[in-house]
């Protein structure tokens, strides 16, 4: 199935014009604005299956599923048809003031079907950031109703990503973002379970327990009566695909169970199949009270996010008088919800998720793990359709390939040049390919990655 082509092939003139208009008028997220104003970037004009095409018609295999969201690739006619039909029937109506719409209702009911048991209520937003803002509002409301208003503090982790509004970046632990904001006063950060960086001489399993017990120490320091919730991604995505040691989540669960604090699983990346199961909390056997979702819920075809609210929290907030004074004009937008319904139908009913869990994920893992033999790869981390490759100059000392992440940036640029989109995070190359790849396409992805790693080891003078 192919998407409609542009009526005219992009001309060099047209491509240049767009490139310049972009540079002059369009401010980009997470971008060096001065550099962009001078140099501009890559204009992506169309996409098909797992490939994007830029304005010069260069074809690039998308090893990142867009921004971790186009999990089913770019050619999904049933999602497009669902959005189109919805726009022709009811293009917009709000969910305020006791109104609802069929798409939002149906999506909520479908989510109840695919979410872990005990999740039956859903609050819709346009994005993951807004969903995490909503989490703060829901948790405050919950403890207010329970007459524990002093429980206000959120604990999160360094190098976590929870979005980019002020509240979401406060929850997040990205130092570059914190430098540019005055964050919320009631968020505290603990160590991340990043064994390769911080594990020292501990085994991964030992280090997983140490990292988890930082939560226990922090709660005890702040006083359980003041702590409302712990928020974490099952696997940190933007932070560099930090796959935690297997000892980590059971220990976190024990600590939360023994104390009266809520556990929030930010599944904006891990949700909807990325880790091999519907949700990352299922992969790790943990039982959150709130789940943040976005990105893959609509396959990236419409802006959509939200919070899945457990019965434990819902039973409090739906049985108390007074308005929950929070929401967005586009909460439950019918076209976005239609995209969500069609995406869930594909994942559940076409066997894509089952295929990813049983065949594609294990194949991707096997091919990625082979790269741990490469001269500059210090560690390979994989889970489901997520992978990270730590680049080093020396495998024993873990000395980084280049200063300030330059090794990973060089390898990423080589990969893109050779037709593979991947990301550099710190000293790692990361990848999160769509679930609709064939094994042959995984092979091509690996070949291009190896070529980029070879070029990087030459550039930084490492002998294979
Ligand atoms: C992308 C992301 C968000 C933010 O989602 P937006 O839709 O960009 O606001 C939040 N949490 C995680 C884990 C993410 O990866």
From TrEMBL:
Protein name: Aminotransferase
GO cellular component: cytosol
Record InterPro entries: Aminotrans_3, Aminotrans_3_PPA_site, PyrdxlP-dep_Trfase, PyrdxlP-dep_Trfase_major, PyrdxlP-dep_Trfase_small
GO molecular function, one term: pyridoxal phosphate binding
Entry keyword Iron-sulfur: no
Organism: Woeseia oceani
Origin: domain of life: Bacteria
Cofactor (UniProt): pyridoxal 5'-phosphate
SUPFAM superfamilies the UniProt entry points to: PLP-dependent transferases (SSF53383)
This protein's record includes keyword Transferase: yes
Family: Belongs to the class-III pyridoxal-phosphate-dependent aminotransferase family.
Keywords for the protein's UniProt record, in alphabetical order: Aminotransferase, Pyridoxal phosphate, Transferase
């Amino acid at each position: 199935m192919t998407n409609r082509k542009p009526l005219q092939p992009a001309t060099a003139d047209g491509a240049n014009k767009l490139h310049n208009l972009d540079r002059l008028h369009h401010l980009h997220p997470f971008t060096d604005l001065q550099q962009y104003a001078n140099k501009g970037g890559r204009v992506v004009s169309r996409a098909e299956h797992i490939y994007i095409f830029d304005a010069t018609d260069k074809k690039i295999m998308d090893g990142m599923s867009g921004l971790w969201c186009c999990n089913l690739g770019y050619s999904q006619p049933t999602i497009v048809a669902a959005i189109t039909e919805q726009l022709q029937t009811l293009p917009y109506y709000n969910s305020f003031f006791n109104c609802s719409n069929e798409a939002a209702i149906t999506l909520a009911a479908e989510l109840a079907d695919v979410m872990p048991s005990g999740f039956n209520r859903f609050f819709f937003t346009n994005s993951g950031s807004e969903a995490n803002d909503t989490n703060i509002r829901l948790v405050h409301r919950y403890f207010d109703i329970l007459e524990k208003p002093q429980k206000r503090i959120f604990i999160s982790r360094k190098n976590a990503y929870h979005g980019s509004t002020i509240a979401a970046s406060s929850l997040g632990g990205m130092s570059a973002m914190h430098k540019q904001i005055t964050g919320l006063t009631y968020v505290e950060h603990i160590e991340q379970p990043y064994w390769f960086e911080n594990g020292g001489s501990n085994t991964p399993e030992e280090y997983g327990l140490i990292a988890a017990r930082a939560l226990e120490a922090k709660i005890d320091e702040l006083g359980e009566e003041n702590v409302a919730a712990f928020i974490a991604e099952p696997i940190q995505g933007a932070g560099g695909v930090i796959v935690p040691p297997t000892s980590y989540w059971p220990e976190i669960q024990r600590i939360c169970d023994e104390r009266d604090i809520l556990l929030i699983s930010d599944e904006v990346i891990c949700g909807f199949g990325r880790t091999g199961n519907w949700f990352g909390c299922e992969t790790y056997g943990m039982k959150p009270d709130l789940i943040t979702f976005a990105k893959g819920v609509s396959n990236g075809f419409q802006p959509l996010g939200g919070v899945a609210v457990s019965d434990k929290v819902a039973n409090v907030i739906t049985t108390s008088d007074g308005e929950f004074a929070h929401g967005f004009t586009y909460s439950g937008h019918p076209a976005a919800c239609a995209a969500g319904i069609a995406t869930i139908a594909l994942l559940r009913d076409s066997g894509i998720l089952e295929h990813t869990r049983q065949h594609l994920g294990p194949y991707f893992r096997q091919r990625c793990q082979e790269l741990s033999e490469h001269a500059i790869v210090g560690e390979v981390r994989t889970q489901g359709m997520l992978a990270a490759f730590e680049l080093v100059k020396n495998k024993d000392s873990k000395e980084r390939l280049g200063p300030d992440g330059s090794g990973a940036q060089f390898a990423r640029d080589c990969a893109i040049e050779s037709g593979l989109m991947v990301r550099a995070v710190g000293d790692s190359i990361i990848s999160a390919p769509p679930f609709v790849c064939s094994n042959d396409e995984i092979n091509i992805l690996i070949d291009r990655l190896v070529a980029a790693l070879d070029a990087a080891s030459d550039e930084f003078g490492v002998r294979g």
